[in-house]
Protein backbone atom coordinates (compact mmCIF):
# COMPACT_ATOMS: atom_id res chain seq x y z
CA UNK A 1 0.00 0.00 0.00
CA UNK A 2 1.32 3.44 -0.96
CA UNK A 3 1.65 5.86 1.95
CA UNK A 4 0.47 9.43 1.49
CA UNK A 5 1.92 12.55 3.10
CA UNK A 6 0.28 15.93 2.59
CA UNK A 7 2.52 18.97 3.08
CA UNK A 8 0.43 22.12 2.87
CA UNK A 9 -0.42 25.55 4.21
CA UNK A 10 -1.98 25.61 7.68
CA UNK A 11 -4.79 23.13 8.33
CA UNK A 12 -5.49 22.41 4.64
CA UNK A 13 -3.95 18.92 4.80
CA UNK A 14 -5.93 17.91 7.86
CA UNK A 15 -9.08 19.28 6.22
CA UNK A 16 -8.42 17.13 3.13
CA UNK A 17 -7.96 14.06 5.33
CA UNK A 18 -11.15 14.88 7.24
CA UNK A 19 -13.11 15.38 4.00
CA UNK A 20 -11.77 12.17 2.48
CA UNK A 21 -12.69 10.32 5.67
CA UNK A 22 -16.23 11.61 5.27
CA UNK A 23 -16.41 10.51 1.61
CA UNK A 24 -14.86 7.09 2.27
CA UNK A 25 -16.65 6.42 5.55
CA UNK A 26 -13.44 6.00 7.58
CA UNK A 27 -10.10 7.65 8.19
CA UNK A 28 -7.54 6.15 5.79
CA UNK A 29 -4.52 4.33 7.15
CA UNK A 30 -0.92 5.36 6.44
CA UNK A 31 -1.81 8.98 5.73
CA UNK A 32 -0.20 11.90 7.55
CA UNK A 33 0.04 15.63 7.06
CA UNK A 34 2.36 18.48 7.88
CA UNK A 35 0.74 21.90 8.03
CA UNK A 36 3.11 24.84 7.63
CA UNK A 37 2.26 28.24 9.08
CA UNK A 38 3.98 31.62 8.88
CA UNK A 39 5.41 30.95 12.34
CA UNK A 40 7.18 27.73 11.33
CA UNK A 41 10.79 27.43 10.32
CA UNK A 42 10.73 25.13 7.28
CA UNK A 43 14.07 23.51 8.14
CA UNK A 44 12.64 22.22 11.43
CA UNK A 45 9.70 20.55 9.63
CA UNK A 46 11.82 18.38 7.34
CA UNK A 47 12.76 15.89 10.11
CA UNK A 48 9.10 15.78 11.19
CA UNK A 49 8.02 14.99 7.63
CA UNK A 50 10.78 12.37 7.29
CA UNK A 51 9.48 10.67 10.47
CA UNK A 52 5.98 10.61 8.98
CA UNK A 53 7.35 9.06 5.78
CA UNK A 54 9.13 6.33 7.73
CA UNK A 55 5.87 5.52 9.52
CA UNK A 56 3.57 5.49 6.45
CA UNK A 57 5.95 3.68 4.08
CA UNK A 58 4.78 0.10 4.12
CA UNK A 59 7.36 -0.93 1.53
CA UNK A 60 5.61 0.22 -1.66
CA UNK A 61 6.61 3.89 -1.46
CA UNK A 62 5.09 7.22 -0.55
CA UNK A 63 3.42 10.03 -2.46
CA UNK A 64 3.92 13.53 -1.07
CA UNK A 65 1.04 15.81 -2.04
CA UNK A 66 1.44 19.56 -1.69
CA UNK A 67 -0.81 22.50 -2.46
CA UNK A 68 0.93 25.32 -4.36
CA UNK A 69 4.03 24.58 -6.42
CA UNK A 70 6.84 26.98 -5.54
CA UNK A 71 5.44 27.91 -2.13
CA UNK A 72 7.07 26.93 1.17
CA UNK A 73 5.18 23.62 1.56
CA UNK A 74 6.23 22.45 -1.91
CA UNK A 75 9.82 23.55 -1.24
CA UNK A 76 9.80 21.40 1.92
CA UNK A 77 8.14 18.54 0.01
CA UNK A 78 10.79 18.63 -2.72
CA UNK A 79 13.49 18.06 -0.12
CA UNK A 80 11.77 14.79 0.84
CA UNK A 81 11.68 13.25 -2.63
CA UNK A 82 13.62 10.11 -3.55
CA UNK A 83 12.87 9.01 -7.13
CA UNK A 84 11.07 5.67 -7.27
CA UNK A 85 10.56 5.66 -3.50
CA UNK A 86 9.10 9.03 -2.43
CA UNK A 87 7.44 10.91 -5.27
CA UNK A 88 5.60 14.23 -5.24
CA UNK A 89 2.64 16.00 -6.82
CA UNK A 90 1.73 19.66 -6.42
CA UNK A 91 -1.75 21.17 -6.73
CA UNK A 92 -3.49 18.73 -4.40
CA UNK A 93 -7.27 18.89 -4.31
CA UNK A 94 -9.89 16.50 -2.95
CA UNK A 95 -10.40 14.60 -6.24
CA UNK A 96 -6.62 14.02 -6.49
CA UNK A 97 -6.44 12.83 -2.90
CA UNK A 98 -9.44 10.49 -3.24
CA UNK A 99 -7.90 8.99 -6.40
CA UNK A 100 -4.59 8.45 -4.63
CA UNK A 101 -6.40 6.73 -1.77
CA UNK A 102 -8.55 4.63 -4.08
CA UNK A 103 -5.71 3.28 -6.22
CA UNK A 104 -2.88 3.05 -3.72
CA UNK A 105 -2.67 -0.72 -3.87
CA UNK A 106 -1.22 -0.31 -7.37
CA UNK A 107 2.48 0.42 -8.09
CA UNK A 108 3.76 3.87 -7.14
CA UNK A 109 4.02 5.17 -10.72
CA UNK A 110 0.43 4.11 -11.48
CA UNK A 111 -0.88 5.79 -8.34
CA UNK A 112 0.94 9.00 -9.24
CA UNK A 113 -0.74 9.06 -12.66
CA UNK A 114 -4.19 8.19 -11.26
CA UNK A 115 -3.87 10.95 -8.65
CA UNK A 116 -2.63 13.50 -11.19
CA UNK A 117 -5.43 12.75 -13.62
CA UNK A 118 -7.98 12.83 -10.78
CA UNK A 119 -6.81 16.28 -9.80
CA UNK A 120 -7.01 17.59 -13.35
CA UNK A 121 -10.25 15.81 -14.31
CA UNK A 122 -11.85 16.92 -11.05
CA UNK A 123 -11.78 20.56 -12.18
CA UNK A 124 -15.00 21.06 -14.14
CA UNK A 125 -16.88 24.18 -15.10
CA UNK A 126 -20.43 23.73 -13.88
CA UNK A 127 -23.62 24.81 -15.60
CA UNK A 128 -26.98 25.48 -13.98
CA UNK A 129 -29.39 22.52 -14.06
CA UNK A 130 -31.85 22.19 -16.90
Uncertain ranges: none
Distance from N terminus to C terminus (CA atoms, Å) equals 42 Å
Radius of gyration: 14 Å
The proportion of strand residues reads: 15-25%
Please tally the helical runs, counting DSSP H or I stretches of 4 or more residues: 5
Extended strand count: 4
Q: Share of helix among residues?
A: 40-55%
Query: SSE order, as H and E?
Result: EHEHEHEHH
Strands in their spatial order, largest beta sheet: 2-1-3-4
Largest sheet: 4 strands, parallel
- Structural class by sheet pairing and helices: alpha/beta
Mean pLDDT across all amino acids: 97
User: Which overall shape is indicated by the principal axes computed on the Cα atoms?
Assistant: globular
Verbal overview:
Helices cover 45% and strands 18% of the residues. It is globular and about 55 Å long. It is of the alpha/beta class. Helix 3 links the parallel strand 3 (62-66) and strand 4 (86-90). The longest helix has 15 residues, at 42-56. The chain has a four-stranded parallel β-sheet, sandwiched between helices.
